[in-house]
Amino acid sequence: MFIATFFAFILFCIIYSDQIIDKVSQYQSYDITDMARSLALLLVAILVTSDRLNMAITLSFPLVATFILGGDRVNMLAISIFIYLVLREGKTNHPAVIVIMAYLSYKSLDFIQNVLAYGTGYLI
């Protein structure tokens, strides 16, 4: 199954390579400061979880993508992965996880307000 999925992914990348390259060139960042939030999340994730190696490997891919593509959308992916892994391990009562969730809940209020007012949450 993995091999079929892998080849389907490769085929998709070949067929849509022009669109993928165009999209990546629009979002290129190469800014080390964009990685600060992802790196902080990685450090907290390693602190919180019991399977540190799995968490480090899993969150290292969004960390690299943040450097290349910028932080906003990639950090949302990293947070989603982090929350999934924390939920799977049952570590949601850890104080660091509660602080992250409280911060994201607070930040989501402005995001939702921008979506309702302007149709997008990503305002420059």
Protein described:
The protein has 124 residues and is mainly α. The chain has 2 domains: 1-28; 31-118, no CATH class. Helices cover 80% and strands 0% of the residues. It has helices at residues 2-15, 17-27, 35-48, 52-69, 72-89, 95-118. The longest helix is centred in the last third of the chain and has 24 residues, at 95-118. It starts with a helix and ends in a 6-residue tail after the last helix. The mean pLDDT is 87.
Rounded mean pLDDT score:
87
Q: How many helical elements?
A: 6
User: Which word captures the global form?
Assistant: globular
Order of helices and strands: HHHHHH
Low-confidence stretches: none
Strand content: under 5%
The total domain count is 2
The largest sheet, given as strand count, sense and whether it forms a barrel, is: none
What is the CA-based Rg, rounded? Answer: 17 Å
Computed structural class? mainly alpha
Distance between the termini: 42 Å
Number of strands: 0
Portion of residues in helices? Answer: over 70%
